[in-house]
Structure formats: C-alpha cells, structure tokens
C-alpha cells in the first residue's frame, strides 16, 4: 500500500508540474494575443488553474489523510429545491399543456345505477313464463325458427311478439307464426348475434316500461 501511495503522489506531482508549465506558457502567449482572442485565453487559463488546484488538493489528501475536496460547481445553475410547505396541498395533477398552478379538476364520482334500469331488470325477472323453446333450428333455406311449448294459451297467439328471457335480461324477440295443440312456431324479429336462443329458454310478454 505504501508503494501505491508513493506512485500516486509522484503522478500527482508530475501532473501539477505539467499544468504549471502549461499555465506559464499560456501566460506568455497572452502577451501577443489579439484582443478578440483574449477572452478565450482567460477562460483556458482559469480551467488550468482550477485543475491545478484540484490536483494539489488530491496530493495533500494522499500525503496528510485529508478528505478529497468536493467538485467545483458546474456552469449550470442549480435548481432550487421546493420546501415541503411550498408543495401544493390540493393533490391536483398538472398536465403537459397546462401552466404551473393550473390544476386539472378532480373527476366526478361514478354515477349511481339508474333506478329505471334496475326496475326494468326486476320486472323482466318477475314476468310470468308464457312459453318455452323446445327446439331452435337454423336452416339455410327456411331460415331460423323455434318450436315452442305453450304455457299460457291466452298470451301465445298468432302474430304475438314474445321476448326470449335469459336470467334477468332479454336476449331477443320471437314472433309467433303458427299455433297448434301440440305447440307453436315462432321466428326471430331480428338476427341474433353470437348468443342465440337454446332449448329451455323462457318466453315472456315484454313488461311495460317503468
């Protein structure tokens, strides 16, 4: 460790000597430097002087155990820290297109579920069953249709439009085309999507709007 310290001290001493010679040469060159280059020469001399001081402090630290001096401040001005009491207390979020201090208003809380929708779901779930699907057919030539088991003869009549209920929602509508003692036939009033009627689905009369 002593050998390493000696080598470091010698290296620092050589660098200090070289910087001193460079600084001296710069001082001599300044005498013949035109005025327009004087500012640049002064800047270079200041940098060399600063480096010389840093190396001198490094050598003193190695020789006497002194702590290394902190780095000199850069040319960039330091950004002042914001004290805790200066921080905004509103919890507002600032957007990229807003000036400082202009807060984005807090979002409105989620609106409660409309009572009308809840009442309709309850009405659909409570509606009495008037028929059930016993078969669902999709024929390329005849189209889609369903055979029904009639439960309420008064409600299941020709041209009656019934709703296909699944859980507490309406899947779609079927229009009764024919009624017979053994059952009834009905066709969809609109094309069903991916969720189609199936055997066991219940048919109801659409409840009146609440």
Describe the protein:
Residues 63-113 are annotated as: Disordered. The protein is α+β, with helices and mostly antiparallel strands. It has two domains: 2-64; 118-204, Elongation Factor Tu (Ef-tu), domain 3 (Beta Barrel), CATH 2.40.30. It has helices at 2-30, 38-64, 115-126, and strands at 131-139, 143-150, 161-166, 169-180, 183-188, 202-204. Strands 1-2-5-4-3-6 form a six-stranded antiparallel barrel. Helix 1 (2-30) runs antiparallel to helix 2 (38-64). It is rod-shaped. The model is unreliable at 79-104 (pLDDT under 50).
Short description:
The protein has 210 residues and is α+β, with helices and mostly antiparallel strands.
User: How are helices and strands ordered from N to C?
Assistant: HHHEEEEEE
CATH fold category name of the largest domain: Elongation Factor Tu (Ef-tu), domain 3
Class per helix and strand makeup: alpha+beta
Largest sheet: 6 strands, antiparallel, barrel
Q: What strand order characterises the main sheet?
A: 1-2-5-4-3-6
Report the sheet-strand fraction.
Answer: 15-25%
Number of DSSP E strands: 6
CATH class of the largest domain: Mainly Beta
Which CATH architecture of the largest domain?
Beta Barrel
Q: Roughly how much helix do the residues carry, as a percent range?
A: 25-40%
**Radius of gyration over C-alpha positions, nearest whole angstrom:** 45 Å
Low-confidence stretches: 79-104
- Quickly count the helices: 3
Distance between the termini: 93 Å
